[in-house]
Design a protein that fits this description.
Layout (H helix, E strand, L loop, with lengths): L1 E6 L3 E8 L2 E9 L6 H14 L9 E6 L2 H15 L4 E2 L20 H14 L3 E6 L2 E7 L5 E8 L1 H11 L19 H28 L4 E5 L3 H7 L5 E2 L3 H13 L2
Parallel strand pairs: 1-4, 4-5, 6-9, 9-10
Antiparallel strand pairs: 1-2, 2-3, 6-7, 7-8
Helix pairs in contact: 1-2, 3-7
């Protein structure tokens, strides 16, 4: 079985995959300071709860945007599962031409998302991943990775607002009852919520204008439900997109 790990700035998603199927998965906060032993023991405990035989884990792959976690993942997988983890980067075989000026600069999670979207849903497509950042990845009708957009995520925008405006305060981020807020809380919620939805819709419109064709739209990431339920565009919602892409990348690069 394959252990697939997607380490983001805020959250980490881990899954166990057997015969291309996700058997189980977990979502946790990305550890800020943890050793390989702590990460390994956590993984062992989670698998024991799910009654997964640790000896059946014979491979591991990860996309990681947090450098200090990456090093500890290598140690954890080697010590607790006896496997060398495959780390995703722009130099791996993807089955997809990457047209970034420097392919090595493409985020590992964006590569995994693009590979999964292309192979599962078809092209041309745009993947919107809503996490700490909101990223847009564009695959052409030829199946080429063209590049994309990186924008501040909802939580980043909210924190910046609360930090920079002395008279504003932290509020729960949720869909407001009205676009026109009749209180400070309602006004902040409306600005953050509809600001992100409007941002996504406008960027999609600009991308499709440049491509000059309609694209398959896929939403993923911890906050993606907001877009799926409120965008003026129709999205496919796939929270497991990155794990699916990791499984495909492992098959393409296994030795």
């Amino acid at each position: 079985m394959l252990l697939a790990i997607d380490v983001g700035n805020s959250h980490t998603v881990m899954g166990v995959i057997k015969n291309s199927e996700i058997i189980t998965s977990w979502r946790i906060y990305t550890p800020k300071v943890k050793t390989g032993d702590e990460i390994g023991l956590m993984l062992v405990k989670l698998m024991e709860i799910e009654e997964i035989n640790l000896k059946e884990i014979d491979a591991a792959i990860a996309c990681c945007v947090v450098p200090w976690v990456e090093e500890q993942l290598v140690k954890a997988c080697k010590r607790y599962f006896g496997v060398n983890i495959l780390l995703v980067n722009g130099e791996l075989e993807t089955g997809m031409r990457i047209l970034y000026k420097r392919p090595i600069d493409v985020g590992a999670d964006r590569i995994a998302n693009a590979v999964a979207a292309k192979n599962i849903y078809g092209v041309p497509c745009v993947i919107v991943d809503m996490g700490t950042a909101t990223t847009f990845d564009v695959i052409s009708s030829k199946g080429e990775y063209l590049g994309g957009v990186i924008a501040p995520g909802m939580e980043i925008s909210a924190r910046a607002l609360f930090k920079s405006a002395a008279k504003l305060f932290d509020v729960e981020i949720k869909k407001p009852e009205s676009v026109i807020g009749d209180s400070t809380i309602g006004s902040i919620q409306s600005g953050i919520f509809w600001g992100v939805v409007g941002q996504v819709d406008y960027i999609i419109k600009k991308i499709e204008g440049q491509l000059k064709e309609k694209s398959i739209l896929i939403a993923t990431g911890g906050l993606s439900k907001i877009i799926v339920e409120n965008s003026s565009f129709k999205f496919i919602h796939d929270l497991d997109l990155t794990l699916k892409g990791l499984a495909m990348l492992y098959e393409k690069n296994r030795k």
